[in-house]
Each structure stands twice: as structure tokens, then as C-alpha cells.
Amino acid sequence: MASVIPAAGTLPWRRRDGRLEVALVHRPKYDDWSWAKGKLDPGEQPCVAAARETLEETGLVVRLGVPLPSAEYPVLDATGGPATKQVHYWAARVTGGSGVLENEIDEVAWVDVRSANDRLDYARDREQLLALVRAERAGELRTWPLALVRHAKAVPRGKWERDDRIRPLDAVGRAQADTVAAVLGAYGVTRVVSSSSARCVSTVEPYAVGRGLRLRTRDTLSEEGFAESHDGALAQVDRLLRKGDPAALCSHGPVLPTLIEVLCGRVAHSPDRVDVGGRLRQAAAESMRKGEVLVCHLVGKGDDARVVDVERIDT
């Protein structure tokens, strides 16, 4: 049985003079035009690899948007044996970077979608382009992420005799927090809100500190505060929806299903996104795993905010 080589990449996009443009990369080794992509490092999340590889190949910092169709095709593995390369793709917006190219890439070309369709060397790469165009036509390409995070693994309640609100992460949880930081970075989160409980704060603190962001803590997002009243936690979600900034909210297993239900009521009615509500409801019913990140991709803000896609990322 052929082995699977996981990889990830992006379709950076922009609008220039009213036209949708995408960035292609040229690899001199193969003399081909394709999307920026590369293999996952051991233990790396696909979304993290997609942003990292795009930076390494194009010199551009990107913020991931909606997922696009993946691609699978036969290759040879390191031993020369048969393998299947599986590449996950995302739409992406450029947020920074120098644009300095690495050795594997000798040119990055921003072209309109018709030129991209003609220039791409592989038919499989046109599937992602078509999905990107469809999302743009549906008004679902210019998105912003709201990431709901369940706190990472903590010291068990039975082994903690002090106030539960200061119960810390264990070694596994601390490692999960580093992965959470990498995931939030891939989606360009700029606003971080957390339950005031130590296990939640410690889950998102590495990201906030690493990015120089203010970490806002709220008692209303704690288990204790939520048990007294749901209103404060619901108000936090409403506030984030009104701002429309790339955001992360970290809370607890008993709290998150209620917050997810709010987002279920914001799902966009689109033929291409028919299962979004179902995936949200499943996440609420199953209870998110410790350290899990639920990335909701939204368009609009305030009363007009609508969820167009959702991803579950287990750290």
C-alpha cells in the first residue's frame, strides 16, 4: 500500500483594479507554475504548514481564509517507492512579508484568474482556482476568523486541592498551548479573549505574548461565571461579532456548546456550504476536545455576520 505524504499550501489572492488576482509560483527545477505548497514537518498541523510554506516560498506573510479542495496525486517517496501526496489548500490574504524568494522558487506572478487557469501546468490545480472564484462570486472569499478554543489539558481535578480557577495545565497541556499558538498564527488572530481561569489563560497566553497582543480575561467565560449567568459569555461573542476582527475566544467544555449555538444561528445559506451548520452542531453536541480549536470563517460583522465555513483542529 502506497504511503501518504501530507502537504499544504495556499492560493494568495487580492483585488487589483476591480479584478480578482492570485499568486502563482514558478519552480525552476520542474519549470512549472503551481501554488505555493510544501510538506508538513513532523507533528505540524496542515494549516500551520500552509502559512509557513507560503512564507518560505514567496516571502509573503498570509492569513488563511476558507479551505479549498485538497489534491491527491502519485509521487515517489524518499526510498523511490510509490506514494500519494495529499495537499490541503486554503485561500489566503497577504498581511506582510518582504517578498524575497527562496532558492526553490524563482518567480511569483500575480495574475488574473483567466491567466492563472491558462498558466497552471497541472489540471488538478484548477480545482482550487475554481473553488476560489465560486467563493468570490458568492461573497464568501473576504472572510475573518473567529476561533473558539477549549483550554488545553490541565492537572486533573481529583489531584488538585486548591481553588479550581487556578488549576494549571499539565505537561501535555503546555505542549498543546504551543500548537494552539501556531494555529492561531496561521489564521492571523489579532484579538484574544479568555476565561479568567488559569488553564484557559495559559492555553492562549503563549500566542498573545508572542504576537505582542493584549490578552483580555473575562470571569463571565469561566465555568463559575457561566453557571451564575449565561449572559456575560453570550455578550462576549456578540462583541466579537460586532468588531469583526480576527479573534480567538478560549473557554471551557460546559461553556462552549452554548456559544457555538449562537454561531449556528449565523450560518450562511449557500449551496456550497450546506454542511457548515451540521458541523457546528456536531462540535456542540460532542463537546470540543481539550486543546481543540474550532475556526469559524465569517463574512460581514454585527447583525450581518454570517458563518460560511468551519474547521475543527485537534492539537
TrEMBL record:
Residues 3-133 form the Nudix hydrolase domain. The keyword Hydrolase applies. SMART domains: PGAM. PROSITE patterns: NUDIX, NUDIX_BOX. This is NUDIX domain-containing protein. SUPFAM superfamilies: Nudix, Phosphoglycerate mutase-like. InterPro entries: His_Pase_superF_clade-1, His_PPase_superfam, NUDIX_hydrolase-like_dom_sf, NUDIX_hydrolase_CS, NUDIX_hydrolase_dom, Nudix_hydrolase_domain. The keyword Hydrolase applies. Keywords: Hydrolase. It comes from the Bacteria. Gene3D superfamilies: Nucleoside Triphosphate Pyrophosphohydrolase, Phosphoglycerate mutase-like. It comes from Terrabacter terrigena.
